[in-house]
Amino acid sequence: xxxxxxxxxxxxxxxxxxxxxxxxxxxxxxxxxxxxxxxxxxxxxxxxxxxxxxxxxxxxxxxxxxxxxxxxxxxxxxxxxxxxxxxxxxxxxxxxxxxxxxxxxxxxxxxxxxxxxxxxxxxxxxxxxxxx
Length: 132
Ligand SMILES: [Zn+2]
Hints:
Blueprint: E1 2-8, E2 11-16, E3 28-36, H1 39-46, E4 54-55, E5 59-67, E6 79-82, E7 85-86, H2 92-95, E8 106-107, E9 118-119, H3 123-131
Antiparallel strand pairs: 1-2, 1-4, 3-5, 5-6, 6-9, 7-8
Bound molecules: zinc ion (ZN).
Zinc ion (ZN) binds near residues 90, 91 and 102.
């Protein structure tokens, strides 16, 4: 598969990458329909933040092609939206509706062995697709 990598400020290249694999039973693999560069990518691109070999495009939409044994909320064939933030959706903060501040959250970076949060294509998801 191809991916966009920022090697250094102003040095962005499209490259061949390893195909993703299910690593953890909570993983899902998504075939992307679209992704975009986030405003947070612009800081390292301009040299305002350090960067080295960083995959770009951490907000995306696509179709689930494979899920791990413990995944129950999305299924193969679902059209999903991924956020820049991976959250567990189970902690107290997530349950209060603030998934971007998840107690176990981490910044997502799509790629082999990476875990990302996805949501189904309900009304909010469809709005995200329209806005993309
Ligand atoms: Zn959480």
